[in-house]
Specification:
- By secondary structure, the chain is α/β, with parallel strands linked by helices.
- It folds into 2 domains: 8-188 and 225-251, 3-Layer(aba) Sandwich (Rossmann fold), CATH 3.40.50; 192-223, no CATH class.
- Helices cover 45% and strands 14% of the residues.
- The protein is built from 8 helices and 7 strands; from the N terminus they run βαβαβαβαβαβαααβ.
- It has helices spanning 17-28, 42-52, 68-82, 105-133, 155-175, 193-202, 207-216, 226-237, and strands at residues 8-12, 32-37, 58-62, 87-90, 136-141, 180-187, 248-251.
- It has a 7-stranded parallel sheet, with helices on both faces.
- Helix 4 links the parallel strand 4 and strand 5.
- Helix 4 (105-133) runs parallel beside helix 5 (155-175).
- The longest helix has 29 residues, at 105-133.
- The model has no long low-confidence stretch (mean pLDDT 97).
- Bound molecules: nicotinamide-adenine-dinucleotide.
- Nicotinamide-adenine-dinucleotide binds at residues 12-13, 15-19, 37-39, 64-66, 91-95, 114, 118, 141, 143, 187, 189-190, 192-195.
Length: 266
């Protein structure tokens, strides 16, 4: 378990899915956190965590990551409450599937606004505090999708997630001399509301079979649990990862490795 004692973290998309897993791992590791989400249900998720971890220090902030002023306000509220901001977890993201020739510019721009500009805004809101403190860490939710693999219908999503790898690399180089580390996760699949929705879009008659089929193609035989992704975010945000910056960390149960489904001894 990572040591995040005395660290203050801002986590976007924290009401559900991986964001909830990240928030859980951070609280478990001793961090004080600000859980940011578009949905007011973020307060219910925070209450669950407060019950599970008595003494935990958690605030919530309802904001749209696509709105820079709202993200600046979220970062300011975090610093006002906890006195500092050590780690930003840029997790909020969206995914809508559509055949490329039918994908509207609105769907494309939705991915650009939330996934790319949302991460951009979160970094711009957090970095000034990290510069003042002389230290910081940023963890960005990219994906294996876009940079390594893709399925049909994911053009806007894949494009936006690959862009985050470029952002990670540039910010890592730009801020290394200022003692701010920037890394991204490249997750395969975890069972979250997002993936359940993608399963419905892929197979409306039998979405469960779409999820079972994902697991069948993963050498570990299952999807990731949100807490497993949370533990990676906690490690990358902690001082244990002090020499890791500009990295893309694949967390996919080896899903992207097999060359075939038919050749080999297993
Ligand atoms: N689940 C997966 O298998 C998977 C795989 C690779 C990468 N990812 C990435 O991980 C991140 C989290 O995915 P998830 O599966 O937990 O998604 P999810 O849809 O299950 O949860 C996303 C959370 O983000 C919030 N959110 C959405 N738009 C927002 C906005 N504009 N501003 C603030 N909050 C917003 C939602 O309200 C929700 O609470 C995303 O960036 C996603 O692309 C997920």
């Amino acid at each position: 378990m990572a040591n995040l004692k005395d660290k203050v973290a801002l986590i976007t998309g924290a009401a559900a899915g991986l964001g909830e897993g990240i928030a859980t791992a951070y609280v478990k590791s001793g961090a004080k956190i600000c859980m940011v989400d578009l949905s007011k249900s973020v307060e219910d998720t925070a209450n669950k965590l407060r019950e599970q971890y008595p003494g935990s220090e958690i605030i919530t902030f309802v904001a749209n990551v696509a709105d820079k002023e709202q993200m600046k306000a979220a970062a300011a509220a975090t610093v006002e409450k906890f006195g500092r901001l050590d780690i930003a977890c840029c997790n909020a993201g969206v995914c809508r599937l559509a055949p490329f020739e039918e994908m509207t510019d609105e769907i494309r721009d939705f991915h650009i606004d939330v996934n790319i500009k949302g991460t951009w805004n979160t970094c711009q809101a957090a970095i000034p505090y990290m510069l003042k403190q002389g230290k910081g860490a940023i963890v960005i939710a990219s994906s294996v999708t876009g940079d390594i693999v893709a399925d049909g219908g994911e053009a806007a999503y894949a494009m936006s997630k690959a862009a985050l790898v470029g952002l990670t690399r540039c910010l890592a180089v730009e801020y290394a001399p200022k003692n701010i580390r920037v890394n991204c996760s490249q997750l395969g699949y975890a069972r979250t509301p997002m993936v359940e929705k993608m399963a419905v879009e892929s197979n409306p008659e039998d979405p469960e079979s779409a999820i079972t089929a994902i697991a069948r193609n993963v050498p570990m035989g299952r999807l990731a649990k949100p807490i497993e992704v949370g533990e990676l975010f906690a490690f990358l945000g902690s001082d244990d990862a002090s020499y890791i910056t500009g990295s893309q960390v694949v967390i996919d149960g080896a899903a992207t490795l097999p060359e075939t489904n038919s050749i080999g001894t297993n």
